[in-house]
């Protein structure tokens, strides 16, 4: 189970890293032009950048605290926060009837939920 949690955390960290880089460093106009970028309509550029920074922090928080053995509790806390972020993403894409993205966000939510459950519970770093 520990290996599955590590693989899940790394996979989700990669997703968060790519999403964070694109939101934090790519212009709103370029994001809006790509497939699935329509959600940026009605969202301020600063809000998109904030989402990007949050995703970058999630990428770090999903693996680095455990790797460095410094406040490893941050791993499941980060995963739980990712669940909340994905609920928001699912609501946003659902309003736009982008159900493929809703399903993708649901998969990310499930992965984050697995990490949070596993690291808070049976495979806790503190237990």
From TrEMBL:
Keyword set includes Magnesium: no
Pfam families for the chain: DoxX_2
Membrane topology of this protein: Multi-pass membrane protein
Keyword terms of this UniProt record: Membrane, Transmembrane, Transmembrane helix
Main localization category: membrane
Superkingdom of origin: Bacteria
This protein's GO CC annotations: membrane
Record InterPro entries: DoxX (IPR032808)
Transmembrane segments: 6-26, 47-67, 73-92, 99-120
Claim: Transmembrane helix is one of the keywords in the record: yes
Record's subcellular location: Membrane
Protein name (Swiss-Prot/TrEMBL): DoxX family protein
Source species: Streptomyces griseoluteus
């Amino acid at each position: 189970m520990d290996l599955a949690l590590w693989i899940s955390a790394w996979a989700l960290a990669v997703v968060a890293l790519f999403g964070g880089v694109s939101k934090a460093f790519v212009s709103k106009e370029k994001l809006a032009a790509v497939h699935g970028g329509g959600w940026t309509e009605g969202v301020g550029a600063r809000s998109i950048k904030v989402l990007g920074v949050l995703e970058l922090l999630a990428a770090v928080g999903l693996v680095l605290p455990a790797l460095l053995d410094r406040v490893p509790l941050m791993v499941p806390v980060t995963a739980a926060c990712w669940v909340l972020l994905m609920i928001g993403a699912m609501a946003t894409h659902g309003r736009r009837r982008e159900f493929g993205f809703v399903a993708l966000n649901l998969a990310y939510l499930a992965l984050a939920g697995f990490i949070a459950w596993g690291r808070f519970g049976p495979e806790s770093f503190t237990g």
